[in-house]
Amino acid sequence: MSSVLVYMQELEKSLKATCEKFIMAVTKQVVDPMLSFVTKITVVKVALSFGTQNKKRDSVIAKPLKEQTFATPEALAELVQKVHSAIQRELPVVIAKMKLYLQNLSTRTILFKPK
């Protein structure tokens, strides 16, 4: 009986880990353009910080954020539209598929059980 309990606990852990990977994959799929934007902002901030320390602000990356081509109002509007479109296109499909599995009470119990 003890080995069955251990097996069930391992199975639950594996199921939860797989679900977390799935959630991360869907999140990345939907908000990837936003993640790319945040990465670019981070690069610019680091470059500006480095440039200020070394007085080397000639680099394209070291230009202030408002001067970056990816940060123009038009580019930001396009970014928001891409994310919005991805949300509307991708999430309904994912939700429909998830409903197939989440109808099962035991699956919901395993997935949503507090740690």
Automatic annotation (TrEMBL):
One of its GO terms (cellular component) is cis-Golgi network. InterPro entries: COG_su3. One of its GO terms (biological process) is Golgi organization. This is Uncharacterized protein. It comes from Gossypium raimondii.
